[in-house]
Design goal:
Length: 464
């Protein structure tokens, strides 16, 4: 049994683990990282953010080719199989793994592959991997083990026609029909992807509306455009049971309805990866979803153990996870440049994209804040007309009296990029965070960013 001593041990190499390891190393700590998978990157790189967004990009290109009249002079619309499209994602994943492996080497972070678990409060033992029979000791430990899809009892996930958001990347054919159970971010994104490939999708939503945390108008727009691409959305339907055979999957609902399709994608819920980690040796108890409670410094109930990323639950975004890891590392190093990650922009990679930051109209109404709305529809933006991506809108919510920006919501092409312009202005101190910024500064023309000027003028005109 080999024993090694470090200042900090990080479990997991997803965004949160990478953020924690890199920042701790840069602050002079001797860092070890334990990764259960054969390569670094975590769920984000191999199953979640990177492959799904690479898939989306490829499908978006296919949609453009098949719907743009200019291409009809070249040839007829083409059909692309899911496995063929997936190869693009595989190439991106390989590049990401190479890049992130270099990060650990460059920062002299020691990387161990295998399953890490506590055997006492300061010791991690590694099993089931190349680094088996290794024990690591450290004063401080960061848990960045991520999350996995929730798998309910009674659903045979070993059946060749039943998938979750991880195993869907192993799909070896393109189904003609598909049931997606769960209409959250993952379910909505995959509904866009598969409908773009010509699959007839039934999107099952256990709730009353899609993505209820979004501004109502944006949620409604998403519903409309999913339906416009052929997705059938069924609200208020709760899963009861699933039957499978060699050629189909049938889902039964508590309402008495049933749907038959070629494949089922289960996209409802995720659990924190905290099983078989020996947490009892350090006095930490996960909640019913396997998640860990942390304080404002990302400390668990054990003073020397931090937890970051999906394993702590909200907001379960790669962007926030990386910052959580960096913040936890700053705190454990004794620096004062740590913060609790709370004001996080939402990026949802449906087709078209959705992104938002700040308050929604519903929230402002409930809080009795006197706000006004400025809108810019992308169909009136010259750049969107040029690119043919004219679906969607930008909406700015601002205080009627102070003109302070309270929320920004965007639905359309490049929404996740466009949102950061507004986010930067919202973060300015004093009078710099008002909607007036967008009318008192010149924007390049033609650009998508010009939507801010149009929306600001639209909103200010409502005040007169």
């Amino acid at each position: 049994m080999a024993d090694y001593h470090y200042d900090v041990i990080v479990l997991g190499t997803g965004p949160s683990g990478e953020g924690a390891a890199m920042n701790a190393a840069k602050k002079g700590k001797k860092v070890a990282v334990v990764e259960e998978a054969p390569v670094v990157g975590g769920h984000c790189t191999h199953y979640g953010t990177i492959p799904s967004k690479a898939l989306r990009h490829s499908v978006k290109q296919i949609i453009s080719y098949n719907t743009n009249p200019m291409f009809r002079d070249i040839g007829e619309p083409r059909w692309f199989s899911f496995p063929r499209v997936l190869k693009t994602a595989e190439r991106v994943i390989a590049k990401q793994v190479k890049l992130r492996t270099e990060f650990y080497s460059r920062n002299r972070v020691h990387l161990y592959h295998g399953h890490g678990s506590f055997i006492d409060s300061h010791t991690i033992e590694i099993t089931d991997g190349p680094a088996s029979s290794t024990r690591l000791h450290a004063e401080q430990i960061v848990l960045a083990t991520g999350s996995s899809p929730f798998r309910p009892k009674g659903v045979d996930f070993h059946h060749e026609r039943v998938y979750d958001s991880d195993t869907i990347l192993k799909l070896e054919h393109t189904p003609r029909t598909m049931i997606i159970y769960g209409a959250g971010v993952i379910g909505s994104e995959y509904a866009s992807i598969f409908s773009g490939l010509g699959v007839k999708v039934d999107l099952i939503n256990p709730g009353e509306r899609l993505l209820p945390f979004l501004d109502d108008e944006i949620s409604d727009a998403l519903s409309y455009h999913l339906r416009d691409t052929g997705v059938l959305i069924r609200h208020n339907e709760l899963f009861d049971s699933v039957d499978t055979d060699d050629s189909s999957v049938t889902m039964h609902f508590k309402s008495g309805k049933q749907i038959k399709a070629d494949a089922l994608l289960w996209a409802a819920g995720r659990n924190g990866n905290t099983q078989n980690m020996g947490l009892e040796h350090v006095g930490i108890e996960p909640n019913s979803r396997g998640q860990l409670d942390v304080d404002e410094n990302y400390k668990t109930s054990a003073e020397h153990v931090y937890a970051v990323g999906d394993v702590v639950g909200w907001p379960s975004l790669a962007s926030a996870a990386y910052d959580q890891g960096r913040s936890a590392a700053a705190h454990l190093a004794g620096d004062d440049d740590y913060w609790f990650v709370s004001d996080v922009p939402t990026g949802i990679y449906t087709i078209p994209e959705i992104s938002s930051v700040g308050k929604t109209e519903r929230e402002l109404t409930n809080e009795k804040v006197p706000y006004e709305v400025g809108q810019a529809f992308l169909k009136s933006i010259a750049r969107a007309q040029i690119t043919g991506e004219s679906v969607g809108m930008l909406k700015i919510l601002f205080h009627r009296e102070t003109l302070q920006i309270l929320g920004i919501h965007c639905f359309g092409d490049q929404a996740s990029e466009i949102i950061h312009i507004g986010q930067a202005i919202m973060k300015q101190e004093g009078a710099g965070n008002t909607v007036s910024y967008f009318v008192n500064n010149t924007f390049n023309y033609p650009t998508m960013a010009e939507a801010y000027r149009i929306a600001a003028l639209n909103g200010l005109n409502r005040l007169s």
